[in-house]
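Quick one:
INPUT:
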């Protein structure tokens, strides 16, 4: 007995001592001696007791069987997560810990008590008896192959035969349908009748787990006030009401009682006598202004009130206000001349109430012909900067820059162009204008730098505006050409879009650049493009010069002489006819009339004996097109006056009809009211009749007021139209004269260009004869030249053919042709031979 007790005490001591050590066993040892098995079992039991009393979660056996894991998945609905294991002190570590490594921060374990563990172990779903794993697998396969719908009643095809489209849709050809009174029934058949398919789970069944009585889990301990204030940190600011005031509804000291209220005394102040100011009724002009402003605020009534504002603009007290609203109405109706005149008066007067609004309207969509006048207008205003609003500053600065540039004041133009902010619609144009101002002021390096920066910016932002890109490219190319940077100039000329008006001129200038780069084949090819049928109507005498010089540089004298012959044939007669016309009909109005006749007729017909290429070139220049656009706007503006007058008449007729109908209803209600004494039915509705009578009376008065306002406005509009039309006629005559003078300048310039080219033609002929003679002497002396790839003159053709066209042109290849002729000059051949010798 004693030996047994001693053994038991020894075992308990061994288990207790080991319980405080770092246990690594999670399951008893299966293989080993009897003593090892007993020791391992005791360690595991002691570890379970220790975890139970300290609330630790139950350990997971890493050697659990797969079937046990499957039962846990079905029982709890969640697969067990693998737990990290800590190697025992006796096991080797795969990676030794670093001596400088800091101890890992272990997050605090959640508090787990016995009730929580019991709830977690309860199953939510349980598989009932009789359902095996094979049953579940069979159920899965049946679900995959089961149809969702079944056919309850099969369909039937139709008996009617109809034509079908490619997609299989029946169509009817209405051309073959016969007219009949009996429409046959169309049998299109019936569709299948389907029904849903019920699905059963067979022998598989699940039941909901029945948990035990739920117990309240322990809640965290509530914080004390001191702990809460400590966690909160800084004290919470008190939010006051408006104006940083806090209402104080508490009494100070004592409570309010009836005795306190009775002790309050009220002092009544005697009211002073009120002296009414004299009443000044509105004058007729003031009433007219009120009526016009009401209609102006409604919008779309400018045609009705322009006459009223014109009458009010003649009064000193209402002049500025009426001029502004009249100009605003004219601007909305696209009457540019009236809008500029009226709004300019308000801006020039520096009106504090309407000056800023008038300036913003002026700068918003200012026509080109008024840009110089806009610059002179603001230049004469002492402090117009006070009238510029934030929303209008970019538009005003840009219009001032353009107006100053047209007036020749390049410094002022550059100053205002630099004030245009980035991101606005005027920014790129303002930067280009700034570069042109620098060039005009002699600052060529600064102009080049500004254009380079603008070109890079346009490329980076992928700007699609062809006009600004073409202008920048052409001007950059010209500046590079002046600096003899021909490669960069050629690159810029290539950037000009083919559908831009500057492309032909840019291609000719590109030809000169290629001659400077000794790219004679490219220069000849580009001029060959311009001499294609696509450009038959283009005025381009200079292109023949470029092509001839290109042929001379490669010693193709036959082609050079042929090109000079074309030049002489095409432009000698054009020069003579243009000279005769300018001597006989060279007045501006006559020239403008001839150009007008050309524009109205066919584009390939001569006018007044002058070739149509001359008229076309004169009419396509930008300065003339701007003037012609202004003339077209003037004619459209004159037609709008007649349209407004007719619109007023139509509106008056409509209001008059409504007034008559209202008067007729008024008379009817008045008659019913007089019969109400004898008629009981009318007597019962007397209040309604009186209300309708008052409504019709007010409507009749309103219609009559509108008629009166319209008639006054029409009378004022007739006077306004007469004065505006007179101003339009004056401006139209002035613009026509300017357009004619512009055309005369172009005609003289073109005449001088043809004279210069034809004069140089004689020098080029001399170069052709001289060069060809030198070439012949060189060959006679034994020199070798390249093959010309031509049919020898000694061969007589067996069949004569007259064929003026010597090539094939494709529109997309225009501007990228290159000559296939070789350089047969002796110097070039010698250089080639010397290069071959050096290489060998």
């Amino acid at each position: 007995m004693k030996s047994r007790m001693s053994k038991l005490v020894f075992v308990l001591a061994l288990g207790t001592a080991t319980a405080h050590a770092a246990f690594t066993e999670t399951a008893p040892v299966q293989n080993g001696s009897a003593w090892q098995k007993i020791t391992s079992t005791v360690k595991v039991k002691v570890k379970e007791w220790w975890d139970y009393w300290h609330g630790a979660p139950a350990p997971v056996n890493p050697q659990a069987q797969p079937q046990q894991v499957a039962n846990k998945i079905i029982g709890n609905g969640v697969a067990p997560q693998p737990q990290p294991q800590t190697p025992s002190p006796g096991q080797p570590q795969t990676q030794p810990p670093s001596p400088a490594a800091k101890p890992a921060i272990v997050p605090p374990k959640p508090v787990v008590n016995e009730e929580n563990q019991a709830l977690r172990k309860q199953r939510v779903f349980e598989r009932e008896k009789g359902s095996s794993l094979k049953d579940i697998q069979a159920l899965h396969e049946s679900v995959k192959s089961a149809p969702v719908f079944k056919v309850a009643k099969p369909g039937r095809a139709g008996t009617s035969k109809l034509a079908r489209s490619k997609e299989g849709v029946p169509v009817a050809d209405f051309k073959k349908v016969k007219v009949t009174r009996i429409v046959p029934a169309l049998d299109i058949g019936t569709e299948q009748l389907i029904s849903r398919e019920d699905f059963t789970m067979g022998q598989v069944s699940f039941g909901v787990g029945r948990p035990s009585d739920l117990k309240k889990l322990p809640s965290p301990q509530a914080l004390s006030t001191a702990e809460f204030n400590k966690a909160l940190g800084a004290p919470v600011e008190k939010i006051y009401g408006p104006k940083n005031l806090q209402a104080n509804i508490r009494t100070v000291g004592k409570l309010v009682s009836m005795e306190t209220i009775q002790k309050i005394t009220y002092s009544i102040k005697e009211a002073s006598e009120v002296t009414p100011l004299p009443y000044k009724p509105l004058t007729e002009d003031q009433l007219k202004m009120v009526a016009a402003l009401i209609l102006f605020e409604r919008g779309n009534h400018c045609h009705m009130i322009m006459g009223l504002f014109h009458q009010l603009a003649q009064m000193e007290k209402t002049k500025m206000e009426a001029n502004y609203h009249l100009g605003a109405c004219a601007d909305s109706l696209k009457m540019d001349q009236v809008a500029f005149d009226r709004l300019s008066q308000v801006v020039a007067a520096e009106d504090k109430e309407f000056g800023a609004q008038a300036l913003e309207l002026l700068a918003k969509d200012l026509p080109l012909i008024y840009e110089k006048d806009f610059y002179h207008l603001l230049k004469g205003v002492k402090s117009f900067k006070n009238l510029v609003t934030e929303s209008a500053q970019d538009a005003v600065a840009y219009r001032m820059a353009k107006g100053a540039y047209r007036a020749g004041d390049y410094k002022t133009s550059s100053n205002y162009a630099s004030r245009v902010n980035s991101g606005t619609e005027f920014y790129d144009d303002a930067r280009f204008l700034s570069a042109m101002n620098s060039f005009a002021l002699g600052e060529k390096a600064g102009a080049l730098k500004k254009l380079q920066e603008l070109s890079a910016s346009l490329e980076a932002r992928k700007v699609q505006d062809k006009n600004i890109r073409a202008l920048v490219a052409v001007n950059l190319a010209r500046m590079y050409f002046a600096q003899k940077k021909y490669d960069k100039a050629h690159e810029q000329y290539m950037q000009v879009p083919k559908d831009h008006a500057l492309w032909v001129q840019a291609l000719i200038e590109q030809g000169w650049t290629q001659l400077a780069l000794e790219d004679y084949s490219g220069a000849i090819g580009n001029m060959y493009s311009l001499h294609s049928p696509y450009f038959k109507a283009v005025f381009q005498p200079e292109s023949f010069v470029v092509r001839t010089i290109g042929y001379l540089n490669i010693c193709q004298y036959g082609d050079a002489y042929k090109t000079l012959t074309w030049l002489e044939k095409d432009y000698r007669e054009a020069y003579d006819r243009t000279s005769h016309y300018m001597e006989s009909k060279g007045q501006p109005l006559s020239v403008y009339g001839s150009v007008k006749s050309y524009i109205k007729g066919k584009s390939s017909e001569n006018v007044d004996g002058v070739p149509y290429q001359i008229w076309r070139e004169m009419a396509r220049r930008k300065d003339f097109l701007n003037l012609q656009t202004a003339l077209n706007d003037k004619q459209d503006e004159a037609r709008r006056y007649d349209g407004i007058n007719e619109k007023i008449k139509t509106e008056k007729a409509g209001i008059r009809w409504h007034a008559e109908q209202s008067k007729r209803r008024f008379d009817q209600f008045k008659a019913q009211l007089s019969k109400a004494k004898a008629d009981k039915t009318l007597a019962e509705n007397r209040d309604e009749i009186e209300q309708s009578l008052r409504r019709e009376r007010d409507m009749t008065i309103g219609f009559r007021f509108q008629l009166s306002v319209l008639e006054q406005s029409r009378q004022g509009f007739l006077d306004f139209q007469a004065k505006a039309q007179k101003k339009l006629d004056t401006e139209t005559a002035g613009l026509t004269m300017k357009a004619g003078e512009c055309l005369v300048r172009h005609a003289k310039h073109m005449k001088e260009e043809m004279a210069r080219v034809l004069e140089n033609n004689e020098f080029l002929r001399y170069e052709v004869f001289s060069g060809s003679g030198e070439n012949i002497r060189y060959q006679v002396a034994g020199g070798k030249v390249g093959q010309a790839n031509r049919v020898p003159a000694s061969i007589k053709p067996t069949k004569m053919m007259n064929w003026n066209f010597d090539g094939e042109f494709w529109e997309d290849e225009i501007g990228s042709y290159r000559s296939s002729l070789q350089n047969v000059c002796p110097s070039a051949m010698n250089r080639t031979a010397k290069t071959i010798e050096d290489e060998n």
